Structures are given as structure tokens and as C-alpha cells.
Amino acid sequence: MRNLYLFFLKYKDHFIFLFFVFCSITILLKNDNPNTHLIRGKFSDKFSIISSPFAWMRSMRQLEEETLLLREKNIQLTLKMKSMLRANEEYDSLLTLLELKEDSDLELIAANVINSGSSSNLSSITLDIGRNHGIKVSQAVLVPEGIIGKTVVVGNTSSIVQVLNDVNFRLSVRILPSGNTGILRYLKDDICEIRELQKNAQISIGDNVVTSGYSQIYPKSLPVGEVIEVLDERGSFQKVAKVRIRSNLGSLLHAFIIVSDLDKID
Amino acid sequence: MIKQIYLGLGVFALQFMLIDFLSINMIRPDFLVIYIFYFSLSNSRYKGIILGFIIGLLSDLTGVGSYFGLTSLTLSITAYLTGFLNGKYERLLPYFFHSIWISILALHFLIITYVKFQILYETNFFDFLLKFIFTFGYTMMFFFVVQFFFPVKDATRAEIS
Q1: Contact criterion met (CB < 8 Å) for A118 and B53
Q2: Chain mean pLDDT for chain A
Q3: Where are the domains of chain B?
Q4: What are the chain B neighbours of A121 within 8 Å (beta carbons)?
Q5: Which 8-state DSSP code applies to residue A102?
């Protein structure tokens, strides 16, 4: 027994290393475990309190710039408003004539980005709203330029969002105007690729990419990006399209979470 | 030891709070690996492994999209491998010693980059390589600044003297 103890003591570095490697791999394999989500949610709440002042500082820095921009936009929008109101009246009357149902509005909740993790490559952001605000796991997150991710961990007052550039992020998309659907995944910088496209799909550079709606998370027709390259290899049974996403994932300050029940949206 | 733990907490706070200001094209420096490297080099290896695991876990708890637990794995590996260099500066040829510690840090980033950009690795190896070089190089830039004030050779002899 004593010899065994001495043996462990002699090689404790190696045993401790093996133990922690085992622990790390166990944690990695239990990423989807509800207990892991619970712990991550609790810690996310704590860290969000610490990082809030820094997020505020970043926001303030950009506030002045944004105010100037908003003033300029305000004038432009006032001018446009009148013509829009007229167009809206016309639209309403046409809808009534055609007896079409008006599109359901998505219910969005605005949030501030309070941190973006501390790993060497960005793959998540933390928002300052959580379960207390009606947020659940697997809800779509977007910015005006398009979809940026989905909630993966939800605490009481904060949520961790798996951003589009995470290696495990996938999104069912549709290319317009052809209507072909495929699966989008991140490649590098602001470039993604769409796979599973039919070989005979008619895709051109500049085509718009939107969400397909074949999902319990993402409603249909939300903007994603535009096609910048189409790869059609001879030996392959599919086409691959490269897409540039419009949102700048590296400098997000605000985001919106879609909290609507997708089953109730037409 | 208490001083070291406070220093570790300070480095973690630095990493957590200032990382966004130092982000270039979504690549950020990793101060934690620098700290773990120095800690493991100047203290005992098993302490380095434990600290690497804890700090890695804390880092992952601040928010990762997926692969929660990866940082604790890579930091534990870094601490373990760095431990082999503890007090070895006098016994190894300098260029061999320096090549080893650079390789250890490169391995840390290679694992992280491979896991996070495995699609790029499959589709475009050159782009993957560039991504790895930028991620590794950006942290090394900060490392060399630290190295200027706290040379690696001094850190490795800390326990002997």
C-alpha cells in the first residue's frame, strides 16, 4: 500500500494531468447536458454584472457618432415618411381587395452585447437579457443586417449566443430568386458556404440569401447575406455557394432576440 | 503562492475585460496561456496543471458558442508540457530550449484553431494555416513584450535559485 502511495506521489504530475484531461474531455462530451447549461447560465449572470460597465463604456464611445448619424437619418426619414404613408394606405386597400392576411410581425426584444467571451477566437456573445425577460434556449438572434446566431445558454439576467461563426453553427437558407435551399456554415472572416444545393440550381453572384423557414428556430425570409461565388465541381453531386454575411460580427453592440412562437407565425 | 493566485485573477480580469478592445478581425490575444506558461515554468508542474484547468474553465464560463471545456483542456496540456522545461535551461542548448517553448505555445493554438476552424481545414488548408499563424502570432506579439521584461530563461531558473 505504501509502495502504491509512493508510486502515485512520484508520478503525481502525470496522474493529475491525466485526471484533468479526463475531466476536460468529460465536460466537452457533456456540452448538451442540462446541468452544464444551468451552471453556464449561472456563471453568465455573474460575469455579465462584471462586464456591464465595460459594455457601457464601449456604447458611450460610439454614442456621439451614432447621434450625428441619427440626426442625418432623421431628416431623410421625415422626408420619406410622407410618401411612405401614402404607399401604406394604398397597400392596405390592395390587401383588402385581395383578401390577403397581413404578415405576422415578429416579436423582438432588444438587448445589449455585454461581452464576447475570452477565447482567442470569437464564437459567442453575451446579451444582457435572460429568462426574466422571457428568453429561452434556441431563439434566433439578429441585427438589422440579418441573422447572427441563436441563444444556447440562458441565465436569469443574461444569455449566451452561439454566433454564426461558431464551428457548430448551421442554418437552413434559401437563395433568392431561384428559391434553392441549402445548409449554411461558417468558413472564415465574413464568408460562409452553403452546401446541399442541387446540382442544377440556378444561382448567380449577387443573389440574396435568406432563412428558409425549415426550422423551429428561425422564421422564414430573414436576411442572411449575398452570394459571392458559386462552386460547381464536376465530380460532385452538389453545388456549393459562398456567401458574404452583411453583419459585422466582430463589433456588435446591440442585437434582437425573436421571442415569437414560430408555430403561430404565418 | 497567494501572490501568484492574485496575479492569475488579475490576468483573467485583463483577458475578460480588455479583450474586445484588442480584437483584430475577430482574433484576440490569449493572455491566459502566457500566464499559465510562466506559472508552470517557474512553479511546479502539477500546480500549473490545476491552475490551467481552473482558469481554462473560468474562461469557457465567460462564454463560448460550443466546445465548452476546450480551453481547460489546452491550458492543462500547455502547463503539463511546459513543466518539462522547468529548470532545464542550463541543460539544453538555448536554441533547442527556445524552439521547444515556442512549439508548446504553438500546439495550444493549433488545437484551438483546428477545433474551431475544422471546416476551413478541410476545405482550404492554406486559409486554415493563415488563421493559425495570425491567432498564434498575435498572442506571441504580446508574449515577446512580456518576455522582454521577464525573460523565459530567468523564469525557468526561478525555482533553482
Answers
A1: no
A2: 83
A3: 2-10+29-157
A4: 26-28, 112-113, 116-117, 135
A5: P
Distance from CA of A103 to the nearest CA of B (A): 32
**The pLDDT of residue B32:** 92
Q: Which domains does chain A have, with CATH numbers?
A: 171-246 (2.40.10.350)
Shortest distance between the Cα of B157 and any Cα of chain A, in A, equals 19
CA trace torsion B79, B82, B84, B85 (10° rounding): -150
User: Which grid cell is A200?
Assistant: 442544377
Q: Tell me: pLDDT of A102 over 70.
A: no
Instruction: Round to the nearest angstrom and report the end-to-end CA distance of chain A.
Output: 71
Show the 3-state SS of B2-26. HHHHHHHHHHHHHHHHHHHHHCECC
Q: What is the pLDDT of residue B99?
A: 92
Identify each DSSP E strand in A60-199 by its residue range.
108-115, 124-127, 140-143, 146-154, 159-163, 171-176, 180-188, 191-198
d(CA A184, CA A147): 12
Mean pLDDT throughout B73-102? 89
ipTM above 0.85, yes or no: yes
